[in-house]
Fold each of these.
Amino acid sequence: MLGLMQPHALMISSLLTHAARHHAAGEIVSRTHENTTHRYSWADAERRARRLVRVLQGLGVGEGDRVGTLAWNGYRHLEVYYAAPGMQAICHTINPRLHPDDIAYIITHAGDRVLFVDVSFAPLICAIAPKIRDTVQAVVMMCDAATMPEMTLAPGMALHSYDTLIDAAADDYAWPTFDERTASALCYTSGTTGRPKGVLYSHRSTTLHAYAIAMPDVLCLRATTRVLPVVPMFHVNAWGIPYAAALSGAGLVLPGRHLDGASMAKLLNDERVTFTCGVPTVWFGLLQHLRMSGERLHSVQRIMTGGSAAPPLLIEAFRDEYNVAVEHGWGMTELSPVGTYNAPKPAQAGLSPAEAVRHMLKQGRILPGLDMKIVDGAGRELPWDGVAFGDLKVRGPWVTCAYYGDEPGSALDAEGWFATGDVATIDPDGFMEITDRSKDVIKSGGEWISSITLENIAVSHPDVAEAAVIAVRHPKWDERPLLLVVPRPGHTVDPESVLRIYDGKVAKWWLPDLVLVVADLPHTATGKLLKTALRSHYGDIYANRTT
Ligand code: ADP
């Protein structure tokens, strides 16, 4: 027997129409590329998104077509986020920090018909225009007519100014309802190995993810929250915040391209931001600026860090020096992206300040709606004892089942689980902790050594700014750890003193065989350590060892 409840489909447009109707005055603030501040409301955003649908239709975009964006966080980008899926097209966000060849590959692979481009990426788009001319028919620069840059595209590609098109468009569009499984957005993983792969979200997955991340034990978004996603809208939908903010009626502050410590501190204070989300690198920049300038944060209560492991120093410094809580979450492009969040249970109530920091290093509990497990090399489920570590698998309605262009289900195992590529422990309270990427774990003499654990200990050394531990081939042990450290500015690092801080913290056989001091470490376009490059450079350094 079917239930007798209204069969409304979960539509992304309904998040926006909710915000426009019930939080009409809720503010969206954008720092523009001219470094001015643009303000409008959720009601304005909804009206402009409807006009943008008319623009898209005028450009020949129809159902299922891909609409690419190469843009920072700003109100025009937000409008594309809602207009494209609202008309059953697909918003394809492209990471401009990738190599131009990868960008051209992604645009061609996705078959983007129209591109929306920030002015700062004009040279980039002109450079790759000849490579994408077969798919891209029009480029819309996200500016007014007066600020249109001088550009030459490939023959046959039309060039427009966003504001000119919007100003001429009618606002008579009415958001349609259709199958909630319809594709809504496309995002390519940054591809630390191999070619980038596309993850294709749906209206259903996006809406459910928005509901889940807004909850109190996750991002805790409310109508009184003013949230600033530093995480770019070109990187996994800015972690879903543009959708979840509309759902909650939260104020949204979009920082544009200037993400350095000084610009961040000013924007956070000027716009009375209460909550902000981004990767650790950004928070280190902010911390450094605050310490040097003596500035304080006047409104920020919580900072969420994710994308890579939360450094203990960050958690301590913001808590102890600025009275700001650092929260820790984990996710990936394939999970829309949020999978776990570290919010306390009653058992965490009595933790000492030091224990609380240690606990916050865990990536957290699975979001309701998803499930997770850890398995050993033979696929057997491992216990939740906080010690055993194995491959982390997840499943649920906002987890991908196949990459763009592949057969549905092809990214899953026989029981429908998705292998995250991360290696983790789960403690008896259900808090997951990443110990490695599957491809980065060091397999020494048949046992596994966690590179992340070794890196976290290395960065607790007072002279070390950044550390990377990689697996290096070893004639006797198969693989052994190599530690690379970058000194803090103005400091020198004594490798012996780095090895000494491991005393009592890890088993003797976990100790890196060698510590190399280097000037810097390579990173991916999303700021993660590029261990593939390190492995190919240092892969044979233990080749002649016998012990
Ligand atoms: P890519 O996999 O292409 O680098 P993603 O942004 O999808 O891009 O990265 C997801 C990966 O980032 C996760 O599988 C995990 O390895 C890492 N990651 C994300 N959040 C955290 C975190 N809080 N702690 C440790 N690693 C994290």
Amino acid sequence: MSLCHLVAIAALMQAPTPETPAQRDARMGWWRDARFGMFIHWGAYAVAAGTHKGERIPGIGEWIMSRAHVPIPDYEEYVHRFNPTRFDADEWARIAKDAGMKYIIITSKHHDGFAIFDSKVSRYDIVDAAPYHRDALKALAQAAHRAGLRFGVYYSIMDWHHPDAQGPNFPDYNSRTYTNPDFGRYVETYMKPQLKELLTQYPEIDVLWFDGEWIADWTDERGRDLYNYVRAIRPSLLVNNRVGHSRQGLSGLNKQGQVDLGDFGTPEQQVPPEGLPGVDWETCMTMNDTWGFKSYDDDWKDTRTLVRTLIDVASKGGNFLLNVGPTADGVIPAPIVSRLHEMGEWLKGNAEAIYGTTVSPYGMPAWGRYTAKQGRVYAHVFDWPKDGRLALTGMKEKPVRAYLVADGKSLTVEQADSGLVVQLPRVPPSTIASVVVLLVP
Ligand code: FHN
């Protein structure tokens, strides 16, 4: 029997038990209800904070090793200086919770190869290679659970530090054509064992969020094997589609607009133009122009834009994974904290119109967005009509009752020639988005 046959049989033996649609729905349930999560990009690149050897390096901060062509020994100096003495896991969980986020996904290992958990597979981690000597990932996993949040980890398949992966390709770590004849050894003796550590020693992990899968050495076969491997260890796990090789760039889906391998698609820095029926997906997005901390990136999106993006995502049936890039000493920057707090304020008043909702039944009205759940449609009004008459675009049957979430007072709905119209008060309750509840038969 050939080696290929043996690998195929081993993969089949590891495959998780096939699921019925109902079992899959049950596994995806908490995630579909959650709608809003925190993404955290945090590692040694935060020490550089966008500047290498006195020069500001353009582009996203966590890519500084590649963008500035930093040799491995020089980059290790950043690791040796990564000492987040102000890191307070409970405070980070509190900030996420206060924002109305339901889960946290943090980079366990980004493309630079440095792990922020205590790995026995490698000494290139926060406990052995950095002066901090403590397992930050474990602290955050436990704090997230104390706060009632779900928890997951990002893991980069690409590794610029490992000799069997992209390490030897310095200075062009991110070449799409480079292959390493020993890549299989990296997968079997490094990546899989690290993932096994994560899945066996961190019981809080519910999501594995892969990335860096575009390298020439990664294939769908390897992806299928890896998907089966991690789900065999933890059957309840959710895995993003970057475990496979078919993502079409930042659209986060394959050529057919589907997830393919994995459990959900991953549009990046963009929201799909319309709802994607039957597809689970999650838009990840930065609040400024970088994922990892850059000391001089102040290009912050405002709170209104962020809340409206969350609504847009929910109205199209997706989740919103909003990124924060903490500093090297362990602090989430103030402009992030204030925006997240304001998002949380809006969400406190309008929770029912976001959590547990599904895709809009009536597409996208010109004045805002719809979300829906059993017996209810929520009209999120961005542009409050000057004459107070809101056209319920797309709605055919008169709602049993209409009222603003803000005060619960009934509103009049009439059948005009142009369609159903709800009469609103003169002043909108929110300048971000005011929500009208429509009870439907
Ligand atoms: O290269 C990464 C990038 O640094 C960041 O982690 C984002 C988040 O989705 N993903 C990659 C590019 O697709």
